Amino acid sequence: MFDIFKSKKQTKLGFDDIEIKLIESDIDYDIVQDIMRGLPKEISQDQLNSRLYEMFGPANNDTKPLTDDKPFVELVFGVNGAGKTTTIAKLANLYKQQGKTVILGAGDTFRAAAIEQLDIWASKLSVPIVKTQQGHDSSAVAYDTICKAVAKGIDRVIIDTAGRLQTQKNLNKELQKIVKVCQKAQQNAPQRKLLIIDGTQGGTAVAGAKEFHDIVGIDGVIITKLDGTAKGGAVFGVSHTLGLPILYVGYGEKQDDIKKFSPKEFVDDLTRSIYG
Ligand SMILES: Nc1nc2c(ncn2[C@@H]2O[C@H](COP(=O)(O)OP(=O)(O)OP(=O)(O)O)[C@@H](O)[C@H]2O)c(=O)[nH]1
Ligand SMILES: [Mg+2]
Protein backbone atom coordinates (compact mmCIF):
# COMPACT_ATOMS: atom_id res chain seq x y z
CA MET A 1 0.00 0.00 0.00
CA PHE A 2 2.86 2.29 0.89
CA ASP A 3 4.39 1.64 -2.52
CA ILE A 4 1.26 2.64 -4.38
CA PHE A 5 1.11 5.87 -2.42
CA LYS A 6 4.79 6.53 -3.05
CA SER A 7 4.61 5.96 -6.78
CA LYS A 8 1.62 8.28 -7.12
CA LYS A 9 3.40 11.00 -5.19
CA GLN A 10 6.43 10.62 -7.41
CA THR A 11 4.60 10.78 -10.72
CA LYS A 12 6.09 13.54 -12.81
CA LEU A 13 4.44 15.54 -15.54
CA GLY A 14 6.17 17.37 -18.37
CA PHE A 15 6.89 21.09 -18.19
CA ASP A 16 4.62 21.87 -21.15
CA ASP A 17 1.74 19.82 -19.78
CA ILE A 18 1.86 21.66 -16.48
CA GLU A 19 2.07 25.00 -18.22
CA ILE A 20 -1.05 24.23 -20.25
CA LYS A 21 -2.97 22.94 -17.23
CA LEU A 22 -2.20 26.10 -15.30
CA ILE A 23 -3.37 28.28 -18.18
CA GLU A 24 -6.51 26.15 -18.39
CA SER A 25 -7.01 26.84 -14.69
CA ASP A 26 -7.59 30.44 -15.64
CA ILE A 27 -4.33 31.70 -14.18
CA ASP A 28 -3.00 34.72 -16.04
CA TYR A 29 -0.37 33.92 -18.67
CA ASP A 30 2.22 36.19 -17.04
CA ILE A 31 1.68 34.56 -13.68
CA VAL A 32 2.00 31.11 -15.23
CA GLN A 33 5.38 32.20 -16.62
CA ASP A 34 6.45 33.27 -13.13
CA ILE A 35 5.31 29.95 -11.73
CA MET A 36 7.17 27.92 -14.35
CA ARG A 37 10.45 29.85 -14.14
CA GLY A 38 13.35 27.54 -13.26
CA LEU A 39 11.24 24.37 -12.96
CA PRO A 40 12.77 21.20 -14.50
CA LYS A 41 11.56 19.38 -17.65
CA GLU A 42 9.75 16.81 -15.53
CA ILE A 43 7.90 18.15 -12.51
CA SER A 44 6.68 16.24 -9.46
CA GLN A 45 3.51 17.12 -7.57
CA ASP A 46 5.57 18.18 -4.56
CA GLN A 47 7.71 20.51 -6.66
CA LEU A 48 4.68 22.15 -8.18
CA ASN A 49 3.04 22.34 -4.81
CA SER A 50 5.87 24.25 -3.18
CA ARG A 51 6.28 26.55 -6.16
CA LEU A 52 2.59 27.46 -6.17
CA TYR A 53 2.67 27.98 -2.43
CA GLU A 54 5.64 30.35 -2.74
CA MET A 55 3.57 32.47 -5.12
CA PHE A 56 1.43 33.68 -2.24
CA GLY A 57 4.41 35.37 -0.60
CA PRO A 58 3.61 37.99 2.02
CA ALA A 59 -0.03 38.21 0.91
CA ASN A 60 -0.29 34.76 2.41
CA ASN A 61 -0.63 36.32 5.83
CA ASP A 62 -3.36 38.68 6.80
CA THR A 63 -0.99 41.58 7.38
CA LYS A 64 -3.53 43.76 9.11
CA PRO A 65 -4.71 41.97 12.24
CA LEU A 66 -8.08 42.75 13.70
CA THR A 67 -8.02 45.65 16.14
CA ASP A 68 -9.98 45.80 19.38
CA ASP A 69 -11.95 48.79 18.14
CA LYS A 70 -15.57 48.62 19.07
CA PRO A 71 -17.38 48.77 16.82
CA PHE A 72 -15.11 47.22 14.21
CA VAL A 73 -16.42 48.54 10.91
CA GLU A 74 -16.15 46.74 7.59
CA LEU A 75 -17.01 48.46 4.34
CA VAL A 76 -17.83 46.08 1.51
CA PHE A 77 -17.53 47.01 -2.14
CA GLY A 78 -16.95 45.61 -5.62
CA VAL A 79 -18.44 45.31 -9.08
CA ASN A 80 -22.11 44.51 -9.72
CA GLY A 81 -23.14 41.01 -8.81
CA ALA A 82 -19.78 40.02 -7.30
CA GLY A 83 -21.53 38.65 -4.23
CA LYS A 84 -21.24 41.59 -1.81
CA THR A 85 -24.63 41.34 -0.15
CA THR A 86 -24.50 37.56 0.19
CA THR A 87 -20.98 37.78 1.63
CA ILE A 88 -22.16 40.33 4.19
CA ALA A 89 -24.81 37.84 5.34
CA LYS A 90 -22.16 35.12 5.55
CA LEU A 91 -19.82 37.33 7.57
CA ALA A 92 -22.63 38.40 9.90
CA ASN A 93 -23.48 34.77 10.48
CA LEU A 94 -19.83 33.91 11.14
CA TYR A 95 -19.37 36.75 13.63
CA LYS A 96 -22.55 35.77 15.42
CA GLN A 97 -21.24 32.24 15.73
CA GLN A 98 -18.10 33.75 17.28
CA GLY A 99 -20.30 35.38 19.90
CA LYS A 100 -20.12 38.91 18.51
CA THR A 101 -22.99 41.30 18.09
CA VAL A 102 -23.48 42.60 14.56
CA ILE A 103 -25.35 45.39 12.80
CA LEU A 104 -25.75 45.82 9.04
CA GLY A 105 -25.87 49.07 7.09
CA ALA A 106 -27.89 48.94 3.86
CA GLY A 107 -25.60 51.29 1.98
CA ASP A 108 -26.69 50.14 -1.48
CA THR A 109 -29.29 52.83 -1.94
CA PHE A 110 -28.82 52.73 -5.70
CA ARG A 111 -30.29 49.48 -6.97
CA ALA A 112 -33.98 48.73 -6.55
CA ALA A 113 -34.52 45.83 -4.16
CA ALA A 114 -30.99 45.96 -2.75
CA ILE A 115 -32.23 47.28 0.59
CA GLU A 116 -34.90 44.63 0.73
CA GLN A 117 -32.37 41.90 -0.10
CA LEU A 118 -30.17 42.85 2.87
CA ASP A 119 -33.23 43.30 5.05
CA ILE A 120 -34.33 39.73 4.33
CA TRP A 121 -30.90 38.47 5.36
CA ALA A 122 -31.02 40.61 8.51
CA SER A 123 -34.33 39.03 9.59
CA LYS A 124 -33.14 35.57 8.70
CA LEU A 125 -29.99 36.02 10.78
CA SER A 126 -31.76 38.05 13.49
CA VAL A 127 -29.34 40.95 13.28
CA PRO A 128 -30.34 44.64 13.33
CA ILE A 129 -30.10 46.73 10.18
CA VAL A 130 -30.01 50.44 9.43
CA LYS A 131 -31.68 51.36 6.16
CA THR A 132 -33.14 54.23 4.26
CA GLN A 133 -35.08 54.70 1.04
CA GLN A 134 -33.73 53.99 -2.40
CA GLY A 135 -31.97 57.04 -3.83
CA HIS A 136 -30.92 58.42 -0.46
CA ASP A 137 -27.32 59.14 0.49
CA SER A 138 -25.46 55.93 1.25
CA SER A 139 -22.82 57.68 3.35
CA ALA A 140 -25.60 58.84 5.68
CA VAL A 141 -26.60 55.20 6.14
CA ALA A 142 -22.99 54.30 6.94
CA TYR A 143 -22.82 57.15 9.47
CA ASP A 144 -26.09 56.20 11.15
CA THR A 145 -25.14 52.53 11.34
CA ILE A 146 -21.84 53.28 13.06
CA CYS A 147 -23.49 55.75 15.47
CA LYS A 148 -26.10 53.17 16.37
CA ALA A 149 -23.39 50.56 16.96
CA VAL A 150 -21.51 52.99 19.23
CA ALA A 151 -24.67 53.84 21.16
CA LYS A 152 -25.67 50.20 21.63
CA GLY A 153 -22.18 48.76 22.17
CA ILE A 154 -22.36 46.52 19.10
CA ASP A 155 -19.12 44.70 18.15
CA ARG A 156 -19.27 44.58 14.37
CA VAL A 157 -20.64 46.87 11.68
CA ILE A 158 -20.83 45.66 8.09
CA ILE A 159 -21.81 48.17 5.45
CA ASP A 160 -23.13 47.16 2.04
CA THR A 161 -22.58 49.39 -0.99
CA ALA A 162 -23.90 49.51 -4.54
CA GLY A 163 -22.11 47.54 -7.21
CA ARG A 164 -19.78 49.74 -9.21
CA LEU A 165 -17.13 49.47 -11.85
CA GLN A 166 -13.73 50.79 -10.92
CA THR A 167 -14.08 53.11 -13.92
CA GLN A 168 -17.29 54.85 -12.80
CA LYS A 169 -15.91 58.13 -11.50
CA ASN A 170 -19.02 59.40 -9.71
CA LEU A 171 -19.70 56.14 -7.98
CA ASN A 172 -16.10 55.95 -6.88
CA LYS A 173 -16.23 59.46 -5.49
CA GLU A 174 -19.22 58.26 -3.55
CA LEU A 175 -17.16 55.39 -2.18
CA GLN A 176 -14.44 57.81 -1.08
CA LYS A 177 -17.11 59.90 0.57
CA ILE A 178 -18.49 56.91 2.46
CA VAL A 179 -14.98 56.23 3.81
CA LYS A 180 -14.62 59.84 4.98
CA VAL A 181 -18.03 59.87 6.60
CA CYS A 182 -17.27 56.60 8.42
CA GLN A 183 -14.21 58.35 9.88
CA LYS A 184 -16.45 61.13 11.16
CA ALA A 185 -18.64 58.64 12.95
CA GLN A 186 -15.67 56.82 14.50
CA GLN A 187 -12.04 57.83 14.17
CA ASN A 188 -10.57 54.58 12.82
CA ALA A 189 -13.54 53.48 10.75
CA PRO A 190 -13.77 51.72 8.43
CA GLN A 191 -11.29 49.37 10.05
CA ARG A 192 -11.44 47.06 7.05
CA LYS A 193 -12.21 47.94 3.46
CA LEU A 194 -13.14 44.68 1.81
CA LEU A 195 -13.19 44.11 -1.91
CA ILE A 196 -15.43 41.29 -3.08
CA ILE A 197 -14.28 39.52 -6.22
CA ASP A 198 -16.23 37.01 -8.29
CA GLY A 199 -13.86 34.06 -8.53
CA THR A 200 -15.24 33.03 -11.91
CA GLN A 201 -14.10 36.32 -13.44
CA GLY A 202 -10.36 35.59 -13.38
CA GLY A 203 -7.95 38.20 -14.68
CA THR A 204 -10.53 40.89 -15.42
CA ALA A 205 -11.50 41.04 -11.77
CA VAL A 206 -7.87 41.35 -10.75
CA ALA A 207 -7.27 44.29 -13.09
CA GLY A 208 -10.30 46.02 -11.58
CA ALA A 209 -9.06 45.32 -8.07
CA LYS A 210 -5.90 47.31 -8.72
CA GLU A 211 -7.94 50.37 -9.61
CA PHE A 212 -10.17 49.97 -6.57
CA HIS A 213 -7.02 49.79 -4.48
CA ASP A 214 -5.89 53.13 -5.90
CA ILE A 215 -9.31 54.67 -5.26
CA VAL A 216 -9.92 53.71 -1.63
CA GLY A 217 -7.22 51.29 -0.52
CA ILE A 218 -8.13 47.66 0.06
CA ASP A 219 -7.37 45.91 3.34
CA GLY A 220 -8.53 42.50 2.28
CA VAL A 221 -10.22 40.57 -0.48
CA ILE A 222 -12.96 37.98 -0.36
CA ILE A 223 -13.31 35.76 -3.41
CA THR A 224 -16.78 34.39 -4.06
CA LYS A 225 -18.29 31.68 -6.22
CA LEU A 226 -15.38 29.29 -5.94
CA ASP A 227 -18.00 26.53 -6.00
CA GLY A 228 -18.77 27.43 -9.60
CA THR A 229 -15.21 26.87 -10.78
CA ALA A 230 -12.42 24.47 -9.97
CA LYS A 231 -10.10 27.13 -11.29
CA GLY A 232 -9.91 30.29 -9.28
CA GLY A 233 -7.11 31.92 -11.23
CA ALA A 234 -8.13 35.19 -9.59
CA VAL A 235 -6.68 33.86 -6.37
CA PHE A 236 -3.12 34.00 -7.73
CA GLY A 237 -3.71 37.37 -9.35
CA VAL A 238 -4.85 38.94 -6.11
CA SER A 239 -2.00 37.50 -4.08
CA HIS A 240 0.88 37.57 -6.49
CA THR A 241 0.13 40.58 -8.67
CA LEU A 242 -1.57 42.81 -6.13
CA GLY A 243 -0.03 41.53 -2.92
CA LEU A 244 -3.37 41.75 -1.14
CA PRO A 245 -4.48 39.28 1.53
CA ILE A 246 -7.38 36.99 0.68
CA LEU A 247 -9.34 36.75 3.90
CA TYR A 248 -12.18 34.42 3.02
CA VAL A 249 -13.61 32.50 0.12
CA GLY A 250 -17.28 31.99 -0.65
CA TYR A 251 -18.42 28.72 -2.16
CA GLY A 252 -22.20 28.88 -2.34
CA GLU A 253 -25.31 30.96 -1.88
CA LYS A 254 -26.08 30.00 1.71
CA GLN A 255 -25.04 31.74 4.91
CA ASP A 256 -22.61 29.00 5.92
CA ASP A 257 -20.86 28.83 2.55
CA ILE A 258 -17.79 30.80 3.58
CA LYS A 259 -14.43 29.80 5.01
CA LYS A 260 -11.12 31.36 5.84
CA PHE A 261 -8.81 31.25 2.86
CA SER A 262 -6.01 28.74 3.21
CA PRO A 263 -3.28 29.01 0.55
CA LYS A 264 -2.13 25.48 1.41
CA GLU A 265 -5.57 23.96 0.92
CA PHE A 266 -6.05 25.91 -2.29
CA VAL A 267 -2.69 24.79 -3.71
CA ASP A 268 -3.26 21.18 -2.64
CA ASP A 269 -6.63 21.12 -4.41
CA LEU A 270 -5.17 22.62 -7.55
CA THR A 271 -2.22 20.24 -7.82
CA ARG A 272 -4.47 17.30 -7.01
CA SER A 273 -6.72 18.28 -9.92
CA ILE A 274 -3.66 18.49 -12.19
CA TYR A 275 -2.02 15.20 -11.17
CA GLY A 276 -5.33 13.38 -10.75
N1 LIG B 1 -22.63 29.91 -6.41
C1 LIG B 1 -22.43 31.00 -5.69
N2 LIG B 1 -23.25 32.04 -5.85
C2 LIG B 1 -23.02 33.14 -5.10
C3 LIG B 1 -21.95 33.22 -4.18
N3 LIG B 1 -21.99 34.45 -3.62
C4 LIG B 1 -23.05 35.09 -4.16
N4 LIG B 1 -23.68 34.31 -5.06
C5 LIG B 1 -24.85 34.61 -5.89
O1 LIG B 1 -24.49 35.64 -6.80
C6 LIG B 1 -25.62 36.48 -7.03
C7 LIG B 1 -25.24 37.92 -6.72
O2 LIG B 1 -24.98 38.00 -5.34
P1 LIG B 1 -25.19 39.34 -4.51
O3 LIG B 1 -24.74 39.05 -3.12
O4 LIG B 1 -26.53 39.90 -4.72
O5 LIG B 1 -24.12 40.24 -5.25
P2 LIG B 1 -23.86 41.81 -5.08
O6 LIG B 1 -22.41 42.03 -5.31
O7 LIG B 1 -24.42 42.27 -3.79
O8 LIG B 1 -24.70 42.37 -6.30
P3 LIG B 1 -25.13 43.90 -6.57
O9 LIG B 1 -25.64 44.44 -5.27
O10 LIG B 1 -26.17 43.79 -7.62
O11 LIG B 1 -23.92 44.60 -7.06
C8 LIG B 1 -26.74 35.97 -6.16
O12 LIG B 1 -27.57 35.13 -6.94
C9 LIG B 1 -26.02 35.16 -5.09
O13 LIG B 1 -26.81 34.15 -4.54
C10 LIG B 1 -21.07 32.09 -4.05
O14 LIG B 1 -20.08 32.06 -3.29
N5 LIG B 1 -21.36 31.01 -4.83
MG1 LIG C 1 -25.73 43.80 -3.36
Write the layout of secondary structure elements.
Layout: H1 2-9, E1 12-14, H2 15-24, H3 29-36, E2 42-44, H4 45-54, E3 72-77, H5 84-97, E4 102-105, H6 114-125, E5 129-130, H7 138-152, E6 156-159, H8 169-185, E7 192-198, H9 203-216, E8 220-224, H10 233-241, E9 246-250, E10 258-260, H11 263-275
Parallel strand pairs: 3-6, 3-7, 4-5, 4-6, 7-8, 8-9
Antiparallel strand pairs: 1-2, 9-10
Task: Give a description of the structure.
The chain has 276 residues and is α/β, with parallel strands linked by helices. The chain is 47% helix and 15% strand. The chain has eleven helices and ten strands. Strands 5-4-6-3-7-8-9-10 form an eight-stranded mixed beta sheet, with helices on both faces. It has a two-stranded antiparallel sheet with strand order 1-2. A hairpin with a 7-residue loop joins strand 9 (246-250) and strand 10 (258-260). Helix 5 (84-97) runs parallel beside helix 6 and helix 9 packs parallel to helix 10 (233-241). The structure holds guanosine-5'-triphosphate and magnesium ion (MG). Guanosine-5'-triphosphate (GTP) is lined by residues 78, 80-86, 108, 111, 114, 163, 224-225, 227-228, 250-253, 257. The site of guanosine-5'-triphosphate has 21 residues, from helix 5.
